[in-house]
Amino acid sequence: MAKEVNKEVFEVLPVPQAVAKFVVPSLASTLITIIYSLADTLFVGMLNNPSQLAGLTVAFPYYQFLNAFSSLWGVGTNSVMSRALGEKDYDRVSKASSHGFWGSLVFMAVVCVIFQILEKPLLYVAGASAQSYDSASVYMLIVFVIGGIPTVLSIVMSNLLRAEGHAKSASSGLMLGGLLNCILDPIFIFGADMGVAGAAVATLISNCVSLIFLIVVYIRIRETSYITLKPFPGGVSWKLIKDVILVGLPSGCLTVLGATGCIIQTSLYSLYGDAAVAGWGVVNRISFISIYTVHGVAQGVLPLIGYNYGAKNFKRVRSVNKCAFLITEILAWAIMILSLIFSAGIIKIFINDAATIEAGVQIMRKYMLCTPFMAIVLLVSTLCQAVGKWQYSLIMLAIRQLVFNIPITFLLNSLFAMKGVASGQPTTELICFIGALFVYHRCFYRAMNKEELLSKKVS
């Protein structure tokens, strides 16, 4: 059977409709992922034990490392595949899909062993106390060390499918895992009386089910797809692996740097007790609503941008970008306003402990001010990756975290204590927002204008 790509969606369908076709399933998947990320915190919080919630908060940044590795391989492979599809280089599409899948598997096998060896110092650096260490340790063992490979492979697999236009199937697999996690959490946490360990087991099972579902989807479409899971057809191509990693590196670094910043913030909040750490844990999860929303929009438009950039249809690329900015900012402002108005009620949903609620409200009303600015910074980063301009994205994100966020957070902590820690992110994002606008102009206007002129001269 002939292999085919839905060219009408990529090339002909009006931009708002094409964006909706990709972004709606991606946002639906993101919504489930948000619920997924909140579920563990919500159900563990119902134990009304700040130490267990603090343990989950301490371990969670390391779970974010799994998202980083997923982005490294998934976003990188998606971008390489999308641009190759636009260039009609179908052999490269197949090889990229295989290298992305098997490369991520080998990579994660090594990483899981390293994290198991370094578990104790990693958790104490993140702010674990004598009371919260056991909870953090068991969560990290089950979710990261045992469950790291299926977690990463499920997200990489969804990116392979999305690159070829199978947005609904890619999103359905992740949604299935998220819904299953919400069902299993109370069963293991309360029914089996496992506490934090129950949340970890539920997450592990859910990610395995997602991976199985996505592999079944691939098996059903493989006769008409350029995706292949045959290990490294034609041999290992280190150049292709390099291309995948370099394009995916900014997304991976974004999450690693974000997780590192979260570890530092958690460590600083630990100076003010387990209630502050638990309150920060809730705020951190709420902030993920905005992060995952931007991620959902960006992942949705990434194949459209990559394909049309590869086909040198720059007018369509710019139109897709405008739609992405509009959707992202509307959602970001809505999230910020709601979180500021209902901060106390939101914290109370997760844990009914007076000290934790008080600390959480103070943190939320400062921290969530970053949302509209952060949305633009993260979106610009992903748009740069979509067209292979990974250098812009990487430099911008490294400066954001290392030059601004970490030093500013330490400085404000020394000046204003806990409220200063919460103010570090908004201050950083406001500065980086200005830089992101400059990067976008340079990457999408100056660079594409030059390429358009070259294309006209060649033709």
UniProtKB/TrEMBL annotation:
Read off the CDD domains from this record.
Answer: MATE_MepA_like
Q: Name one GO biological process term.
A: response to antibiotic
Report how it sits in the membrane: Multi-pass membrane protein
List the keywords (alphabetical). Answer: Antibiotic resistance, Cell membrane, Membrane, Transmembrane, Transmembrane helix, Transport
The cellular location(s) given in this protein's UniProt record come to:
Cell membrane
Molecular functions (GO terms): antiporter activity; xenobiotic transmembrane transporter activity
| PANTHER family associated with the record | MULTIDRUG EXPORT PROTEIN MEPA, SPORULATION PROTEIN YKVU
> What name is this protein filed under?
Multidrug export protein MepA
